[in-house]
């Protein structure tokens, strides 16, 4: 069940980035749907990987720092 949950989270992240990108494409903005879908997918993948990594579960500061590092890419 956990793997299915992770896959669904990645799909939702990519879908959300895609929808935002479609809106930007329709308004002739420079960053489009593929770029935002990939950035959202990458950010979700990093977040899920850090949360799933066993040694970091007891260190919320480490999880927070990795997520903060991934967010500026958005």
Summarize the structure in words.
The structure is a single chain. This protein is an all-alpha fold and 74 residues long. It has one domain (2-73). The chain has three helices and no strands. It has helices at residues 2-26, 33-52, 60-70. Helix 1 (2-26) runs antiparallel to helix 2 (33-52). The radius of gyration is 14 Å and the shape is elongated. The model has no long low-confidence stretch (mean pLDDT 81).
Shape type? elongated
Compute the number of structural domains: 1
Mean pLDDT reading: 81
Oligomer: single chain
* Helix share bin: over 70%
The first-to-last residue Cα distance is 29 Å
Query: How would you spell out the order of helices and strands?
Result: HHH
Strand-residue fraction?
Answer: under 5%
**Rg for CA atoms:** 14 Å
Low-confidence segments, given as residue ranges, are: none
- The count of strands amounts to 0
Structural class: mainly alpha
Biggest β-sheet, characterized?
none
Number of distinct helices: 3
Notable traits:
mainly alpha, 0% strand, 74 residues, single chain, 3 helices
Topology overview:
Blueprint (H helix, E strand, L loop, with lengths): L1 H25 L6 H20 L7 H11 L4
Helix pairs in contact: 1-2, 2-3
Concise account of the structure shown:
With about 70 residues, the chain is mostly helical. The protein is about 75% helix and about 0% strand. It has one domain (about 1-74).
């Amino acid at each position: 069940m956990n793997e299915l949950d992770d896959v669904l989270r990645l799909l939702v992240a990519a879908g959300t980035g895609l929808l935002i990108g479609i809106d930007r494409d329709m308004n002739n903005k420079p960053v489009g749907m593929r770029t935002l879908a990939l950035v959202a997918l990458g950010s979700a993948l990093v977040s899920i990987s850090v949360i799933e990594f066993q040694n970091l579960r007891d260190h919320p500061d480490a999880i927070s720092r990795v997520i903060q590092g991934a967010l500026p890419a958005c």
